[in-house]
Write the structure tokens for this entry.
Amino acid sequence: MAGKPVLYYFNGRGRMEAIRWLLAVAEVEFDEVLLTTREQYDKLLSDGALMFQQVPMVEIDGMQLIQTKAILHYIAQKYNLHGKDPKERVMINMYAEGAMDVMEMIMVLPFITDVKAKLDNIQTKAKERYLPVYEKALSGHIYLVGGELSLADVQLFECTLMLEEKFTGILAEFPNVKSFQGRMTQIPAVSRFLQPGSKRKPQPDDVYVKTVMGVLYPKGL
């Protein structure tokens, strides 16, 4: 029997959080190696574990996978969260990548100085470009694609949570998205991951930022 997947990243959300969410929804237990020192990172590099010298990295099924989207697609396909055919799969990928666009804008906030301007930009784009698409797609549908739970739903759900952390009430104008969010919380695996004590990470703080910068850029930018 194969061992648990092992996730190599920092003790924070970043690009690994979507992978944590997908594994949790697939009900796959995983272990984590949390990077806190440059020495850990150098060891991974010297071992040849990081194809493009970057994390996140996931050890699964005898492989060392990097590139967030590639990892997500592998897990989604392995656990039947990636549609029934190529047409469903490409729709899932488009919806999932739209949600990731928004989440990536939020991810960089702890590392920039002009946060207010960036927040205003995120809110505008979310309300004018992204949320209307999901609102339309969820009209009369439980899930985004094919009537079944998929990677796209998991990423949209995570995206809605991140948006609400920054903009209280942002979903008020998008009732279908808000209803979708409520349905997702009723899925037992989702509910468990939302509980205190799970491997879900909190919003990034100064300790997280300092750790990331110290590991990746020990001599400064």
Residues 86-186 form a domain with the Glutathione S-transferase Yfyf (Class Pi); Chain A, domain 2 fold (CATH 1.20.1050.10). The mean pLDDT is 95.
